[in-house]
Design a protein that fits this description.
The structure is a homodimer.
Chain A lengths: L2 H11 L21 H22 L12 H6 L15 H13 L9 E2 L8 H13 L10 H18 L7 E5 L2 H16 L3 H4 L7 E6 L5 H8 L7 E4 L9 H13 L3 E8 L11 H11 L2 E6 L23 E4 L12 E5 L4 H6 L32 H34 L5 E3 L10 E5 L2 H4 L5 H21 L3 E7 L2 E7 L8 H15 L3
Parallel strand pairs in A: 1-11, 3-4, 3-5, 5-6, 6-7
Antiparallel strand pairs in A: 2-8, 7-8, 9-10, 10-12, 11-12
Pfam family, one (chains A, B): Pyridoxal_deC
Subunit structure (chains A, B): Homodimer.
GO molecular function (chains A, B): glutamate decarboxylase activity; pyridoxal phosphate binding
C-alpha cells in the first residue's frame, strides 16, 4: 500500500481538482453542507468523461494503450488497483477515474471493430447517465413507473416490427443475449411439459433441442444449465455460407423421433457471430410446424436488420417464430446492456417463471398490478435497460435506426468489394456477406507463392494473431480473429459503429498490410 | 401521434436549452462539427441530473409524484411515451429526460425505505457514469483490461473477508442475487454430478435441494429453471424469529435419503428478505458435512454485515460455505446492479460453464488468457458492475463500509426501541431484529379494543395497504408491507440508505399514525 506517496506525486500533476485535495467521501451528500463538494466532484468527473468522449471520436487518439495484466497489477505510475482500509481523497478518486479510462479500450473509437457491440451513442449515453441517477429496479411499477411503461411500449413496438398481429405477445429485457436465449429454451419446455417446473426433468421424456453448428454458444450453455445436457442439443449442418441446411434439420428430427426422443425446440440464428449468416427461417418454420416444435429466432446480432426496409427480408419468416432474441446493444448501437426476449404467446412467460412472492407482488396495491413485471423474470432485481433505448428511439426515430443499419451494411459491402480481389487477401467464403461480417485472411508476401497444404495452413494460422498482437501494441485499431471448423485463424470484420467511415475501412486494410507485410 | 404540437408547448416552457431547439441527433458526434452540440447537450443533461440529485437529498422534496399507469400512458402535459418514426429535437429529448425523472420514484431520498436497495451514493454514481462512458464488456481482458483486474482483486478481497484461506477460490459478478443463487445451484450439481452438463438431469438420481421456508424465491426459481423441479426443493421450518431449525433440516435430509433421493444442496440465508433473519450457518454446516452436501450462503441482503466487526458474528460459519451470494448493491449502498457469487473451490465455475467458444476465447492471444472471464459465466456479454464498487471502496475504505453498516443497524435499533412499546404498534416478532428489518403492525384506534379473531385479522390485513396507498398519493415516504404465513399484512421497514437519520425514522412513524389514525 503506497497510495500516500502516490497521491503526492499526482497532486502536482492534477490541474483542476485542487479544491478536492482535502475533501473526502464523507464530505459529500448526504453530509451537511455536502451540496457544494458534491456538485464540484460530479462536474470534475463529467469533465473527465467529456474529455474522454471528445478524444474517442478523434482519429489521432489511440484505440488503446495496451499493457499486460502483470503490468497493470504491479501498478502504473500512481494507479494502484489494490483496495485499502482507509479512504482516499476525492482528488485521488478523480485520478483513479482518469487512469481507469486511460488504460482501458475505447470501444467507441471509429477504428474499434473488435466486437459486435461498438460505438458510443451520445443520446444512449445520456440515457444511461440518467438511469444510474434514478438508480431503480424494474420489478414493480411501484418503484419504476415510467421505466416499466417504457419497456412495455417498446416491447410492443418490437413485436409489431417482427410482424406479430397487433404487436400482441409478451417479452422482457434481460441482461444479454445469452440469458434471452436461455429464456427461450425455458419457455419452450414449459409450453410442452409444464410439469417440469414442479417435478423436474424427470417428468419429461428425453427432450431434444436443435441449433446450427455455427450458432452462438449460449444455446449450448442453456442446454447444460437447464438440465437438458449438451448431448441433447443436436447441431445442424450448414452450407458454405454458414446457413442451416433445412433438410439436415428434418433428417435429424426424424432420427431423434425414431430413437424415441422428443424434439421440442429449434433455434434459427439470424446473424451468426462469425459469418453473419441468416438461417432460412421460413423453411425451418415449416419443419417446426410439421413436427410441432418451438421455433426460436436468435436475432441477437441480426435482429437490428428488421429496422431496415432494404435488409429485413433476410429475416423473412421471423413472424412465424414463437420467440425472438433481439439485442439493441449490438447492431442498433444502444449502450451495453440491452437485450430483449420477445414471446408470441401471452402469459407463458409469467406461467413459466412466476413464484408469486408475497413480499414483492402484493395483490392489494392501489394500482393495476398487472404492470408489475418481476414475476415474469428469472431475476428478482432487474437493471433498467430500457431508458437509453427508448430515449435513442425518440431522438432518432425509427428512420434513424434504419439509416444507421443501412449505412453499416453499405460500409461492409464497401470493404468486401475492396478486398475481394485485392492482392494478399482471400475471402473465407464467396459472395457478398449477408450481414456486416466480412471474413478474410491476409496472406503475407512470404506465403503467397506457397502451395496449399499443411505447412501453409500452419503458418497462415499464426498470421492473424501476430497482426492482432502488433495492432494492440501499436493501439491503432482493433479487429477480431478466430479459427472456425477446418479453417485456420481468419479476421472477422464487423461494423456496427456509427462513427466508422470508408476512410476507417481503408485504414484497417492498410494497417493489416503494414503490420503483416514482413511476416 | 401528436408530438409536434406537444413539442411546441414545451419549447416555451424550457429555460436553458434554447440552443438545442433546432438541433437533432444527427448533429451530435460522430457528425462533422458535432463536438460543440455534443458537449452542450451532455452538459444540459448533467444539469438536469445534478438538479435532481440536489432535490433528492432535500427533505422538502416529495419521494414520488404518483400517477396510475393509465394516466402516464395517456400522456402527461407533453410527456408522450409513444415511440415515433421521426426524430425529436434534442430540446424535446431534454424535456423527456426531465419528465422521466419527474414521474419516477426518488430511491435515494432519505425517506425512501421501500426496498433493500436504497440511497444514492455519489461516488458510486460517478463510477456508473464512467462505466457507461467506457461502454465495454467483461468477457475478455482484451476489451476490459482494467475492469477485469478490478473484478479479480475485489472478489479476492471479498473472499478474504468471508474467511477463506488467503482469499483463495473463484467468483464472478452477476446481474443480481437471483442469478448468483442460480449459479450456486448449478455449481453444486456440477460438483456431484458433472455428467449432467452433457447428459442432462436424466444422468442423475432424484436430487434434493433445501432452503428455508422464508428464503428468497430465487432458490425456487432456480430449482424450476435448472430442471430439478420445485417439488424437489424442500422447505425448512423456521423458528419464531424466522431462522432455519437445524434439526428440521437433518430430519428432512434423512427422510429424503430413506426415499432413495439424493440431497445435494442446502441454502442458508444470511438476512432473509422480510424478517432479516440469519440462519445458524455453523449448525447447518455440520449437517452439510455429515451428509456430504453443498452449503450455499445467500448473503444477498446480509452479506454486507461481514464488513462490520460488530455485526459480522451473525454470519459465523460463513467461511465453511462452499459458495456465497453477496450483493453490494443492497446493504453496502452500491448502485444497482452489483451482485457477486463467490465460490471456495477454484476451477469449478469454469468447469461447470465453459463451452470454449473459439471466436471469443482464442488461446493464441498475446496476453495471459487466464484473465478472460467470459467462459465462467452463463452470460456472454456481461455489464461492467465492478467499477462503481471498486471506486466506492477506494473512496470509503473498508472502514467506510463498516461505518455505514453500523449506522444503519443503529438506526434500526432506534426504530425498534421507539415502537416496541408505543401505543398502536405491535411487533411481528419479539426481540431486537438481527438485521435492519423491523416488522410491525400499525393498529388504528378503531381496532385497538377489538378482541383477537377473524374479524380483527381481516380488518388489520387492510390497514397497511391503505396506509401505503395514501403514503404514495401524498408522496411523503415509502415503506413496504406484505403478509407472511399466517400473519396478515404488516410493515417491513428496512434501512440501507446512508441519508436516513433518526428524524426520518420519527417522520415515518408519525406519518403512519397520521395516515392510519382514522382507518
Amino acid at each position: 500500500m503506497g497510495p500516500l506517496v502516490i497521491k503526492k506525486t499526482h497532486k502536482v500533476q492534477c490541474r483542476s481538482p485542487r479544491l478536492l485535495l482535502f475533501i473526502y467521501f464523507v464530505d459529500l451528500l448526504p453530509a451537511k453542507n455536502g451540496e457544494e463538494p458534491t456538485m464540484q466532484f460530479l462536474l470534475e468527473v463529467v469533465e473527465i468523461l467529456t474529455n474522454y468522449i471528445r478524444k474517442t471520436f478523434d482519429r489521432s487518439t489511440k484505440v488503446l494503450d495496451f499493457h499486460h495484466p502483470h503490468q497493470l497489477l504491479e501498478g502504473m505510475e500512481g494507479f494502484n488497483l489494490e483496495l485499502s482500509d482507509q479512504p482516499e481523497s476525492l482528488e485521488q478518486i478523480l485520478v483513479d477515474c482518469r487512469d481507469s479510462l486511460k488504460y482501458g479500450v475505447r470501444t467507441g473509437h471509429p477504428r474499434f471493430f473488435n466486437q459486435l457491440s461498438t460505438g458510443l451513442d451520445i443520446v444512449g449515453l445520456a440515457g444511461e447517465w440518467l438511469t444510474s441517477t434514478a438508480n431503480t429496479n424494474m420489478f414493480t411499477y411501484e418503484i419504476a413507473p415510467v421505466f416499466v411503461l417504457m419497456e412495455q411500449l417498446t416491447l410492443k413496438k418490437m413485436r409489431e416490427i417482427i410482424g406479430w398481429p397487433d404487436g400482441e405477445g409478451d417479452g422482457i429485457f434481460s441482461p444479454g443475449g445469452a440469458i434471452s436465449n436461455m429464456y427461450s429454451v425455458m419457455i419452450a419446455r414449459y409450453k410442452f411439459f409444464p410439469e417440469v417446473k414442479t417435478k423436474g426433468m424427470a417428468a419429461a421424456p428425453r427432450l431434444i433441442l436443435f441449433t446450427s453448428e455455427l450458432s452462438h454458444y449460449s444455446i449450448k450453455k442453456a442446454s447444460a444449465a437447464l438440465g437438458f445436457g449438451t448431448e441433447n442439443l443436436i447441431l445442424l449442418n450448414t452450407d458454405e455460407r454458414g446457413r442451416v441446411i433445412p433438410a439436415d434439420l428434418e433428417a435429424k428430427v426424424i432420427e431423434a423421433k425414431q430413437k424415441g426422443y422428443v424434439p421440442i425446440y429449434v433455434n434459427a440464428t439470424a446473424g451468426t457471430t462469425v459469418y453473419g449468416a441468416f438461417d432460412p427461417i421460413n423453411e425451418i418454420a415449416d419443419i417446426c410446424e410439421k413436427y410441432g416444435m418451438w421455433l426460436h429466432v436468435d436475432g441477437a446480432w441480426g435482429g437490428g436488420l428488421l429496422m431496415s426496409r432494404k435488409h429485413r427480408h433476410k429475416l423473412n419468416g421471423v413472424e412465424r417464430a414463437n420467440s425472438v432474441t433481439w439485442n439493441p446493444h449490438k447492431m442498433m448501437g444502444v449502450p451495453l446492456q440491452c437485450s430483449a426476449i420477445l414471446v408470441r404467446e401471452r402469459g407463458i412467460l409469467q406461467g413459466c417463471n412466476s413464484m408469486c412472492a408475497g413480499y414483492l407482488f402484493q395483490p392489494d396495491k392501489q394500482y393495476d398490478v398487472t404492470y408489475d413485471t418481476g414475476d415474469k423474470a428469472i431475476q428478482c432485481g432487474r437493471h433498467v435497460d430500457i431508458f437509453k433505448f427508448w430515449l435513442m428511439w425518440k431522438a432518432k426515430g425509427t428512420v434513424g435506426f434504419e439509416q444507421h443499419i443501412d449505412k453499416c451494411l453499405d460500409l461492409s459491402a464497401y470493404l468486401y468489394n475492396k478486398i475481394k480481389h485485392r492482392e494478399g487477401f482471400e475471402m473465407v467464403f464467396n459472395g457478398e456477406p449477408q450481414h456486416t461480417n466480412v471474413c478474410f485472411w491476409y496472406i503475407p508476401p512470404s506465403l503467397r507463392g506457397m502451395p496449399d497444404g499443411e505447412e501453409r495452413r500452419k503458418r497462415l494460422h499464426k498470421v492473424a494473431p501476430k497482426i492482432k498482437a502488433m495492432m494492440m501494441e501499436s493501439g491503432t485499431t482493433m479487429v477480431g480473429y478466430q479459427p472456425q471448423g477446418d479453417k485456420v485463424n481468419f479476421f472477422r470484420m464487423v461494423i456496427s459503429n456509427a462513427a466508422a467511415t470508408r476512410s476507417d475501412i481503408d485504414f484497417l486494410i492498410e494497417e493489416i498490410e503494414r503490420l503483416g507485410h514482413d511476416l
